[in-house]
């Protein structure tokens, strides 16, 4: 139990020993000086960029997406296999696979493109040959060049099926033709506006560099000037701040207050004499007023009683004329200030002022020493600060000049090339546009021929040889044959253009567009990075920075720079310092060494060592005795309450002017009469006396009372200093001055050192806060790269989306049309043959026979029927199908009324002999040609056996 108590007592003792130190630490941790932190102005310059990444595909986006997917099928993620290219600094050399003639991996990767190119070349070579063969075949009557006038049994079905298939292919051709026209126009628009986008990009890049330069100048120059001005003001006020804080902490300012009071004793004496004078004047004036009011009161009572009217009685009652006096004020009760004035005079003539002045001189000497010490070291600190500012300004000028030079170089070297590009585009791009327009027009012509052929073939009538319509089936067949001819004539040329466009578009999209859109992981960007080799350039800049006079050092470790990483960092809106890794030749963090390097830290330490104070004696014993005499003087007897309690501003109960006005009003209403006239005159005389008393006596007494109360109140405040009495205030002054002297001599040196330490620390903190601002602004705020990436994206949109995508869409539309031309040739040739037939299907009998109809002017004359077995089959089929010859040849039947000269006059029975020809009765002379009548030749006898 005893052990437990002892343990607890030890812990309590240790805690009591620790607590004072903790309180002291807390007390010392509180700031003594309130150093104002510099408010740096923020850089806020709004800029308007011109580059735009907005893009409207105007309905072609699905086509572009499909085209890009098709290109992805042909091109690998790494377009160049390893071992074929070796890229070094500024040079491209063949790889080992080229030296060893090892083309296997390259062929394996691009077999699809090679296959497509080979097929296209074969088609380019074969299509003219195929067209020539088709032409020759038709010229010799084959391939649908000549056909029977009658439809075969299934020709109607063939026409419908082939027409439907050709409609489908023609409808699909519409898409390809539209794509060709639209993409050609979009591509031309993109080509014409590429320089405008480039100019916007150059303008925005220059504006970005200029804004970044202005931001650097703002932070490194303007903000430092703001800091330097505040630091100079801080140094200028340093001595006053130290002295002020020392006086406040030691309460030494009470000596100054006491000295100021002693200096005011002559003024206090004057105030007391003024109060004494005012008191005497009030007594005299009050006696005069009292005597005058008694005479007026006597006369008024006599006259008002004689008047006897109701108004006279009312005036006498309302204003209490019977008690008209000085309101019962006894001015003789006001205190006599003669002794207090004499005491103040004695103090003024004594050595009190000089004794206190010696203490003030001691404090002034202490202040002067501190001020002189600080002033001697201020120029050195300011010089070190100015040197630091000059070094920072040199860095700012170096960075801004380089950025401005880059901006000027970019503008000077870009705009002239863009002007040249405009001239070339204006001069030559129109030819590419017309070439694309010509190809699109050819496709449109083929499409129109197919459409007209289908329209005439489907909607037109059969050709009959007599006044055919312009849009009959025969015209439709000719349109189709014309479209086939155009296809054969232009197919190879269009396919060659499409193949070249496919290869160029694929290469451009993969080498440029895809690389620019994913620069971090792209093989081509990697090769470009090796070719340009930014690290070699940075090594040169690093060497220049090491040789330069700027005090910003380079970083210890060299960070490699890659183009892809630069673009990705720019996309993430990093600062130009991080994007370009400028720490490789300017490490902004080394600015922390500037205060040490330029001597700011050294001069502040010297200032802290030189600021010291010596022991002082504020009050001598003689000065203390003189102050005690002041404490026991008659000033302690001054009582302000005797003035405020015995004085009032209401000298009379009623305003005498008001009474006078009422008396004049009553006098004017007194009735006429000899005696009443005397009363009227007396009332007016007394009213005149009252007005005179108010002006000459009452109003001056009110002014004197006001001044006397004000002087007494002010004097009371000056004497008591917020204490209960003058004696207590002087006693407190003595105590505080003694404490101040003891504090200065005992703790003053430590306090001043602490204040100086805080002043120096505040100065250093201001500088380091600025340095931190510079580092944070450089690494996180200056030159945010988002606008440059917006320029980068706008260039991609202007070149890839507005030129490359329409270019690839163009060859895609052309290839689509070429693929549809192949079936269209077959369908067109077949349908053109079917559309040329003038007669419908006549039936199986006529289909197997060769007829010559003179009345219908048939040109195809079958000379023999088919073999016997075929005829037998046709006869069997005749039973199943209706013989429609009567429909088509009813004009040739005897039952039909015809012109007599077309009647068959040949004998019906030939007796086995050949038919004989005879002219009809009404026939023309034999000299005129007459077509022979039709005859029927059943064929050779062997065919009927």
TrEMBL record:
Residues 1-29 form the signal peptide. The chain crosses the membrane at residues 110-140, 161-182, 433-458, 479-504, 809-829. It is found in: Membrane. Coiled coil: none annotated. One of its GO terms (cellular component) is membrane. It holds the Pfam family Prominin. Residues 877-888 have a biased composition (Basic and acidic residues). Keywords: Glycoprotein, Membrane, Signal, Transmembrane, Transmembrane helix. InterPro entries: Prominin (IPR008795). Its main location: membrane. It is a multi-pass membrane protein. Residues 861-945 are annotated as: Disordered. Belongs to the prominin family. PANTHER family: PROMININ PROM PROTEIN (PTHR22730), PROMININ-LIKE PROTEIN (PTHR22730:SF1). This is Prominin-like protein. It comes from Anopheles arabiensis (Mosquito).
